[in-house]
Every structure is written in C-alpha cells, then in structure tokens.
Amino acid sequence: MMPRLEYKDDKKSKQSIWLFLDQSLQLHKAPVLHSLCIKLGSQCPVDVEVGKWVAKAVDRFVRKLKFKLLWSADPISLPKSLYTCETLVKLKISDKVLTDFPSSPACLPSLKKLNLINVVYKDDASLIRFLVIDTPAVKYIHLTNCSKQYCLIKNMPCLDRAYISVHTYADDKLPRSLSSVLFLELDLADEMLLRCSAINFSRLTELIICPDESDWLEPLMLLLGKSPKLKKLSVDYGPTENPEDLPLSWNEPSSVPGCLSSHLEIFEWVEKYGGRVEELGFVTYILANSKCLKRATISLRSAFNLEQKQKVMKELDSIPRVSKSSQLLLK
C-alpha cells in the first residue's frame, strides 16, 4: 500500500533488483501511486519486460515517474499510455529508453517537470510526433542528447526554467517555445545559440552560457539584446576541456543591450577565464556598460602560473566600471 516506491540497482552488487521489483509491483494494491523511481544497471537481464511496470504506474494514476535503464541490450519502449497520462506531474527518462510516441496526439496536461536525458527515438515518424506533444503546465524542462538527435515541444506558456544541451537542430520551434522562460542554461554549439539569439526572451532574468565548440560572443550579444529584463549573466567554461582552442571573434556592438543599461546586477565568469583579447574585450564591455551592476566574479584558468595570473588580474582590475558601487571579485 506504499504510495512512493523506489528501486535502484547497487553498482557494487552482481545481482539486479529487478526480480524483487517485479514481484513487489505484482502485490502492490495502493489505489494511487504517488511516485515510482526505477534505476536498473547492467546486471538486469535483457529479456525483462520492464514496460509493464510503467503501465501499472500509469493505471495507478502516477504523479512522478523516474526511469533510468543502463543495461547492455537494445533500448526498450515504454507503454503508449504514458504519453497521455493525465496525472503525471514529473517525468524523467534516460539512457536505454526508446521514445516511441503514438500516432494519436500526445498530451500530458498536468506535467510540470520534464527531463529527457540521452533517450533514443524509434524512427523519424516518432520524432516528428514529438514536435507536437502538448504540455501546457510544464514549468521545468531538461533536454540532453549526446547522440546529436533533436527534440521539440510546443505549448509551454508556464515554463520557468530550462536546461538545453542539444547540438544538432533542424527546426526553430523549441527556441520559440522557450520564449517565456525565466531561467535558461544553454550548453550548446553555434547553431542553437544563433537560433536562440533571434527569439525575444521577454521574461528572462537569469542566463547561463556554456560554450561548446562555438564562436559564442557575437550570438550572445544578440541574445542579450532580446532579453530586456536579464539580471544575472554567467559564462561557464566548466564543461569545455580546452577553452583556449575555441574560435572567438569580438566586435563591439553599435548599441548597448537594454538589460545592461537598466537590469543586469550580477556577472560571473564561472571557470577558466584565459585573458584572450576577445574575452577581455567582452568583459570590458560588460563592466563599462552595466549601470546597475552589483557584483562581477571572474575565475581564472587554474593552469596559470603565478606570473600569468598576476598579469591577467591586473588587466581585469584596471577595467573601468560604470557602476561605481559594483564589486569585482577575482579568483
């Protein structure tokens, strides 16, 4: 009768928990299943019918479903009923899961949080059907796909937070569906950043850019021009192995983005600032034009020796700041 169930394979164990999971779900009698979390590792037999567990959860009006499959077999399909579940509020599926969207319209009217991590699409038709999945209540979306496929969702008027890591894109519907977001993190290459820079982000207050093999400075400036209410801007080189090898070009814009003149309060360079001419030009521009800036934090590349570090810190410390009350923190 427990309303919350969680099953996870132990990495250190040679046996999978799947049999206990299967038998306990057969005995489960609660009329409503609040949450079901399943994580199966490589120990799980490849002939297990895992989809029936999800089907049972949907039949029990599940509100939260997390499913991660790390076995060595081919990806498995989840039941069609999942894509029309009226009670589902949180959905997270990842790895060896085959997203096989039904031919009839998919609708998740109660969904507020969606995580799709490295999922696999059955075919092009299924992928296209995902373009029109209806999620009117969703507030958080996290899309990651290292296989360089793409996925799109429409109708997200309540979206507050989005984390997007998609490298190959064939349509601009996802960027447009993000236009109402408040918090946005982009871990992307040139193409997606360029698409986003053409969208009006009228509500965006916090933006994190994680450059990945991209000439990101000029598209970012275009994006800032489309984000009039931005209060916090972060550049995070953390996921980038060799940021010094990224192609960069910097040309000072002819007009100052409105967010710099009236809203931006925090600027962060989270990791691996290298002091390149283009990087210095960008930071100089931000500090010279952000009239409401309260704090700027810049973390230098850890590979710098003491002399290099002192030189770069001296350059940064000498940059004039239009906001006289702002703090500059160098790490």
From TrEMBL:
Classification of source organism: Eukaryota, Viridiplantae, Streptophyta, Embryophyta, Tracheophyta
Protein name according to UniProt: Gb|AAC79136.1
PANTHER family per record: EMB|CAB62440.1-RELATED (PTHR31900:SF34), F-BOX/RNI SUPERFAMILY PROTEIN-RELATED (PTHR31900)
Entries under InterPro entries matching the protein: FBD, FBL13/AtMIF1-like, LRR_dom_sf, LRR_FXL15/At3g58940/PEG3-like
Gene3D superfamilies, per database record: Ribonuclease Inhibitor
Organism: Arabidopsis thaliana (Mouse-ear cress)
Domain FBD: 258-331
